[in-house]
TrEMBL record:
The lineage of its organism: Eukaryota, Viridiplantae, Streptophyta, Embryophyta, Tracheophyta. This is Glycosyltransferase. Its EC number is 2.4.1.-. The chain crosses the membrane at residues 12-32, 144-165. Pfam families: UDPGT (PF00201). GO terms for molecular function: UDP-glucosyltransferase activity. Keywords: Glycosyltransferase, Membrane, Transferase, Transmembrane, Transmembrane helix. The keyword Glycosyltransferase applies.
Length: 499
């Protein structure tokens, strides 16, 4: 389909979390790669705009085409600590529901911003968790698509679980069926976050998430999904059936490696130098993401198991769950006595407080595996570099991401959640298996095949484009049709389709 070559304006509205900022910025880069004359405006609160800008340095090819607009927000008006504008700055997960509900207060400010644009933008790309913006776009006759920063299976599972809370129908059963899934499919209660397990449909979590999911499914014209069609084909078909929307796959949207504004616990050069002293595929990288941590007893067991395995490691540590995650990490308090000193001997291990350059670490040839919380950004960063995983999901859709990568054969799950016992001997066995044994080598081969599929999805050779680049083209075609040709009424759903 011929499309106008004139400059077009797209507005993006991510949820207030760094884990959402990264894929939105990566999507902006992907769009501008195909349509370099377009302009993209990313809208958020003032402190989040500062964070977003730090991910887009002046030497980035997209720098001149990505703009930012801030909306007023006072966290203290919502019983949040001062200057708390993202989930990353919360003192703990308990405050996340307050932030989610507070995010809806941006609605009148976003309405004024969107109404002020002249000419009106070609398209609004809203986060599923900012679906409160969809009725605003509909009233202004602006095409509105939603974007899930998760994978297809994670999006489908997370949505259906919050909409139906099916575990409440069988309170005595450890496992249960999820409406919308095949009859044989069952989930275990351990594959739910604490807030989902105790939800009753009227709590703050249910109130916010159900409202956003329902708005997404009823008011979006299309759903973009941060996955690769060839990696999640069956989950993609399931997602289309569930949401009754066209689904376009635009992944993998991974961190470009640009530094954020935070101070890392280890610099890139120091990290690369340390890894350079180790054999290829011999080091285990351990990280639970920027917002997560494990329990104190679990941390001790993990340390004991990793040390007993004899496998070299880089471990990004945070204060355990139940304590202030923003506090300085005290190795002598939270790790076995002498652990850090023994790890330093002969470069056996590297304990890094709070944050490390994950993209550079996973890209290094010395890395043989990744023990991860199974956040979707981390999963894609690992697979796009051919690194197999050990799963330890902690919250949200991470449990369902763990299921996907186990099914694909690129991961094995070692533990779940921040509560419950962790067997140090199991940790030892699984780490050795991944790094040193034949099964681990087989997982590496499968991860390498996933890497090939992911790279092919965003590859371009002449007129031949990968599936995710084709999805970007279809996104533009649909938006043009809605905006100019009026082929679709704003707010109604085109025929289901999967790119």
């Amino acid at each position: 389909m011929h499309m106008e070559q004139e400059r077009q304006h797209i507005v993006m509205l991510p949820f207030m979390a760094q884990g959402h900022f990264i894929p939105f910025l990566s999507l902006a880069r992907l769009i501008l790669r195909r349509h370099p004359s377009s302009t993209i405006t990313i809208v958020n609160t003032p402190l989040n705009i500062l964070s977003l800008r730090s991910f887009l340095p002046p030497d980035d090819p997209s720098y001149s085409r990505v703009h930012f607009a801030s909306l007023p927000f006072a966290s203290s008006d919502h019983n949040l600590p001062p200057n708390t504008e993202s989930s990353d700055s919360l003192p703990g997960i308990d405050s996340l529901a307050l932030l989610m509900l507070a995010s809806e207060s941006l609605s009148p400010h976003f309405d004024r911003f969107l109404s002020s644009l002249d000419p009106s933008p070609l398209l609004l790309l809203a986060d599923i968790l900012t679906s409160w913006s969809l009725p605003i776009a509909r009233r202004l006759q602006i095409p509105a698509f939603t974007f899930s920063t998760c994978g297809a299976f994670g999006t489908a599972s997370f949505s259906l679980l919050w909409l139906h809370l099916p575990h409440r129908l069988h309170p005595e059963s450890p496992s249960f069926h999820v409406p919308g899934f095949p009859p044989s499919f069952r989930l275990h209660r351990s594959q739910m976050s604490h807030y989902m397990r105790v939800a009753d449909g009227h709590d703050a979590w249910s109130t916010f998430l159900r409202r956003q999911i329902r708005l997404c499914f009823s008011s979006a014209a299309t759903l973009l999904c941060n996955t690769v069609a060839e990696v999640e084909p069956s989950a993609l078909r399931l997602l289309v059936e569930i949401c009754q929307l066209p689904v376009l796959t635009v992944g993998p949207l991974v961190d470009s490696g640009h530094r954020s504004g935070r101070e890392p616990g280890i610099g890139v050069a120091e990290c690369v130098e340390w890894l350079g002293a180790h054999r290829p595929a011999s080091v285990l990288y351990i990280s639970f993401g920027s917002q997560n941590t494990i329990g104190a007893a679990q941390m001790m067991a993990l340390a004991e198991g990793v040390e007993a395995s004899g496998v070299p490691f880089i471990w990004v540590v945070r204060t355990p769950a139940g304590f202030d995650m923003t506090a300085e990490f005290e190795a002598e308090r939270w790790l076995p006595e002498g652990f850090e000193e023994r790890a330093a001997q002969g470069r056996r291990g590297l304990v890094v407080p709070r944050w490390a350059p994950q993209v550079e670490i996973l890209s290094h040839g010395a890395i043989g595996g990744f023990l991860t919380h199974c956040g979707w950004n981390s999963v894609q960063e690992s697979l796009s570099r051919g690194v197999p995983m050990i799963g330890w999901p902690l919250a949200s859709e991470q449990f369902y991401n763990s299921m996907v990568i186990e099914e694909i054969g690129v991961a094995v799950e070692v533990a779940r959640g921040v509560q419950g016992d962790v067997d140090a001997r199991k940790v030892e066995r699984v780490v050795r298996m991944l790094i040193q044994e034949e099964k681990g080598r087989e997982m590496k081969e499968k991860a390498a095949r996933c890497e090939e599929m992911m790279m092919a999805a965003v590859a371009e050779e002449g007129e031949k484009m990968g599936s995710s680049l084709r999805a970007v083209e279809e996104m533009f075609e649909m938006a043009y049709a809605m905006k100019q040709d009026r082929a679709f009424e704003i707010g109604t759903k085109p025929k289901n389709g999967v790119e």
